[in-house]
Design a protein that fits this description.
By secondary structure, this protein is of the alpha/beta class. It has 2 domains: 196 residues, 3-Layer(aba) Sandwich (Isopropylmalate Dehydrogenase), CATH 3.40.718.10; 139 residues, Isopropylmalate Dehydrogenase (3-Layer(aba) Sandwich). It has 12 helices and 12 strands. It has a 10-stranded mixed beta sheet with strand order 2-1-3-12-11-4-5-10-8-9, with helices on both faces. The protein has a two-stranded antiparallel sheet with strand order 6-7. A hairpin with a 7-residue loop joins strand 11 and strand 12. Helix 1 runs parallel beside helix 12.
Length: 352
C-alpha cells in the first residue's frame, strides 16, 4: 500500500500539543497508520529565535515533496505576529497556490452555541487565500515624522476572484444550493464592485444555485441573528477571515474549528490546520482543546483519499463531545490527552 507523506509543523505554543493529539487520532482511524507517514519539522518562532528565519532555507522545496502538510499553530512572543505569519504560513499558501481556505462550521452535538436559538447551524465559509487585502504591496515614507505616509494596496485579479467564486458555487451546488457573497461595495469603490461583477458573471453558469450578495457587516450580524438561513458564504481574503471567526464562535468555540488550505487542482500539496492561535497563556498545561486539530485531520484524510476514515474521525469526535468529555473552553474539565484518548476509544468501537 502506497503511503501518503504528511509533513508536520507543530509550530508554537499549544500547536505541537494539538497536532500530536491529531496524529494519534489519525493513526487510530481505519489503519491510517499504514496509509500515512508523518515527518516532523521543528519550524516556527523558536526556530526563528535561534536561526533568524521561521523555517529552513529550503523549507518550501522540502514541503513540495509531501502530499499534504499538517500544521498546529504559529505565533509566540517576542516574535511579532506579522513576521511569523508572513515568513511561514503565507509563503506556504502562495508558493503552493492554496487559493481556497475552506472553513466548515457546524454545531456539534455536546457543544453549546452562545446563541439562544442556533437552529440547524451548518455553514461552510470559502475564503480567497492568496491575494486580496493580504497583499504585500505598499510601503511607508517619512517614518516618525508628522508627514508619515502608510499605503497598503489590495490586489484582486480576475483569475483569483473567478476561481474562488466558482469553487464556492460548486460547493453550494453539492450542499443546499444557497450561496452568499460577502462584499463591501458600498464603501470600497473599486475592488468590491469588481468582486460583485465576477460573482454575478460566474453565477450565470449555476442557475440551480440561489445566490446573492450581502454587505459583510450586515452579513456578520445576520450570521449571529439567523445562522440557519446560511449554507455557503464566499469572501475575499480579509472578509472571509473575519466572517470565519464569526461562524466558528457561534458554533461554540474557536478551538473546535478546522481549516483546509487547498490547491484544488492538486498540482501542489495542501495544508490542514485548526484556526485557533498558539495560546501562549495555556501552552504546556495540557488543557488545550484538540478538537480543531482533530477535525482538520479528518479533512486531511478525506483530501488524501480516505473519506470514510475522515468521516469516522469526525463522528468519534462528536460522540466524545456529546458524552461530556470536553476541555475547559467548552465548559468541561478534561485534559487534551483525555479528550484524545476518548476519541481514539470511540474510533476503535465497531459502532463508530
Amino acid at each position: 500500500m502506497e503511503q501518503s507523506r504528511i509533513a508536520v509543523i507543530g509550530g508554537d505554543g499549544i500547536g505541537p500539543e494539538v497536532v500530536e493529539a491529531g496524529i494519534r487520532v489519525l493513526e487510530a482511524a481505519n489503519d491510517a497508520a499504514e496509509r500515512l507517514s508523518f515527518t516532523r519539522f521543528a519550524w516556527g518562532c523558536e526556530y526563528y529565535l535561534e536561526h533568524g528565519r521561521m523555517m529552513a532555507e529550503n523549507g518550501l522545496d522540502t514541503l513540495a515533496g509531501f502530499d499534504a502538510t499538517y500544521l498546529g499553530a504559529v505565533g509566540w512572543p517576542p516574535v511579532p505576529h506579522y513576521l511569523s505569519l508572513w515568513n511561514l504560513l503565507l509563503p506556504i499558501r502562495r508558493t503552493f497556490d492554496q487559493y481556497v481556505n475552506l472553513r466548515p462550521a457546524r454545531l456539534l452535538r455536546g457543544v453549546e452555541s452562545p446563541l439562544a436559538n442556533p437552529g440547524n447551524l451548518d455553514v461552510t465559509l470559502v475564503r480567497e487565500n492568496t491575494e486580496g487585502e493580504y497583499s504585500d504591496s505598499g510601503g511607508r515614507m517619512f517614518g516618525g515624522t508628522p508627514h508619515e505616509v502608510v499605503i497598503q494596496e489590495s490586489v484582486f485579479t480576475r483569475r483569483g476572484v473567478e476561481r474562488i467564486v466558482r469553487y464556492a458555487y460548486e460547493e453550494a451546488k453539492g450542499r443546499r444550493g444557497l450561496l452568499v457573497g460577502a462584499t463591501k461595495s458600498n464603501g470600497i469603490s473599486i475592488t468590491m464592485p469588481f468582486f460583485d461583477e465576477v460573482f454575478r458573471e460566474v453565477g450565470e453558469e449555476y442557475p440551480e444555485v440561489e445566490a446573492s450578495l450581502m454587505h459583510a457587516d450586515a452579513l456578520a450580524a445576520r450570521l449571529v441573528l439567523d445562522p440557519e438561513r446560511f449554507d455557503v458564504v464566499v469572501g475575499s481574503n480579509l472578509l472571509g477571515d473575519i466572517l470565519s471567526e464569526v461562524t466558528a464562535a457561534i458554533c461554540g468555540a474557536i478551538g473546535i474549528a478546522p481549516s483546509a488550505n487547498l490547491n484544488p487542482e492538486r498540482v501542489h500539496p495542501s495544508l490542514f490546520e485548526p484556526i485557533h492561535g498558539s495560546a501562549p497563556d495555556i501552552a504546556g498545561e495540557g488543557v488545550a482543546n484538540p478538537a480543531g486539530a482533530i477535525w482538520a485531520g479528518a479533512m486531511l484524510l478525506e483530501h488524501v483519499g480516505y473519506p470514510e476514515a475522515g468521516a469516522r474521525v469526525l463522528a468519534a469526535l462528536e460522540e466524545t463531545l456529546a458524552h461530556g468529555i470536553k476541555t475547559q473552553d467548552l465548559g468541561g474539565s478534561a485534559t487534551t490527552e483525555e479528550v484524545t484518548d476518548a476519541v481514539i476509544e470511540r474510533l476503535r468501537s465497531p459502532t463508530v
